[in-house]
Amino acid sequence: MNYPFALAGKRVVITGGTSGIGLAAAHAFLDAGAQIVVNGRSIARGQEALQDLKPRGRAWFVPGDTVDEADAAALAEAAETHMGGVDVIVCAAGLNRRGAPQDLGLEDWDAVMDANLKGTFVIARAFYAALCRSGDGRIVTLGSMMSVLANEATAPYAAAKGGVVQLTRSLAVAWAPDGIRSNCVLPGWVNTPLTRQGRKDIPDLDRRVRERTPLGRWAEPEEVSGAILFLASPAARFITGTAIPVDGGYLVRG
User: Fold this and answer.
1) Mean of the pLDDT values across residues 134-153?
2) Largest CB tally within 10 Å, which of 51, 92, 126, 199?
3) b (16+ CB within 10 A) / e for 67-91
4) Which of 191-206 are b and which e, b meaning 16 or more Cβ less than 10 Å from the residue's Cβ?
5) Backbone dihedral region for residue 149 (phi beyond 0: left; psi -120 to 50: alpha; all else: beta)
6) Strand ranges across the sheet with 137-142
7) Across residues 207-221, what is the average pLDDT?
8) If pLDDT is split at 50, 70 and 90, which confidence band does 197 have?
9) Rounded to the nearest 5 degrees, what angle is found at the Cα of 96, between the Cα atoms of 95 and 100?
10) C-alpha of 24 from chain center
11) What span, in angstroms and rounded, lies between the C-alpha atoms of 50 and 58?
């Protein structure tokens, strides 16, 4: 019997792969023997990430905006050129803008919805043909606790991340006949640049997170990678259309 968690040789594309959870996932895939293409909007940040990634294995950086169809097509073409195909896409690109709903403008709404939801759709569609050719295509999207919960300061983000879960489920149903599995990971409070800014914006956020989380702390980005790699592995061949929390128990605490 083949090792159920084997990822050696898998061809992986990670959007938002130059920082935070995306970069941690890139490290983990390389350590598991996969080859990767990471994508992000900042060329400088991409080159910096690549210096860290290349010693671990076969890695490339392709700049671009996930909501731009031409950029998404170029990313798919580059991945095909570098790796000869694609087996897994991880949609980790996103952003947040905080504020009371009445204080956020349509520019804020559009920016958050585009980066988190529209970008996921554009990338998934751009890689559909490649994932079909794989014969065992995997889509792993990044939702959030805000896919399930809500608070007073993240209405656009919660709406977008709720949409990511439903989009993931829809892709799972639509593309199952093509051999593509589509699942979502719901990170809890993770120590990333995005949430470090959140702790500056919301002074008591750190205390509230620690008090509600049964494990009593924030996660590190690499602690989310395990679920991402699991969903990309042979062990998850019969899992599709699900959303898995990785939150230290935050969602189950009343």
Assistant:
1) 94
2) 92
3) beeebbebbbebbbebbeebbbbbb
4) ebeebeebbeeeeebe
5) beta
6) 59-63, 35-40, 11-15, 88-91, 137-142, 180-187, 243-246
7) 94
8) confident
9) 165
10) 11
11) 10
The token pair at 113 is 């919805």
Q: What does the block give as tokens for 84? A: 């000869």
What's the pLDDT at 186? 98
- Read off the pLDDT of each residue in 47-59 and give the average, rounded to a whole number: 96
Q: In angstroms, what CA-CA distances link 183 with 18, 39, 63?
A: 21, 20, 25
Tell me which amino acid residue 35 is.
Q
Residue 239: C-alpha distances to residues 71, 74, 138, 242 (Å): 30, 30, 10, 7
Residue 140 has pLDDT above 50, yes or no: yes
Average pLDDT, the chain: 95
C-alpha span between 199 and 196 (Å, rounded):
5
pTM of the predicted model, to two decimals? Answer: 0.95
Within 13 Å of residue 172, how many CA atoms lie on the same side as its CB? 20
- Yes or no: say if 68 and 41 are a contact pair by the CB < 8 Å rule: no
Tallying the residues shown for the chain, one arrives at 254
Calpha distance 21→25 (Å, rounded)? 6
Residue keyed to tokens 């990333």: 192
| Cα gap 237→99, rounded to integer Å | 40
* Domains along the sequence of the chain with CATH: 11-243 (3.40.50.720)
For residue 177, the SS3 value is helix
pLDDT above 50 (res 1): no
How many other C-beta atoms are found inside a 10 Å radius of the C-beta of residue 137? 23
Q: Which residues are catalytic?
A: 157
Dihedral over Cα of 10, 16, 21, 26: its sign: positive
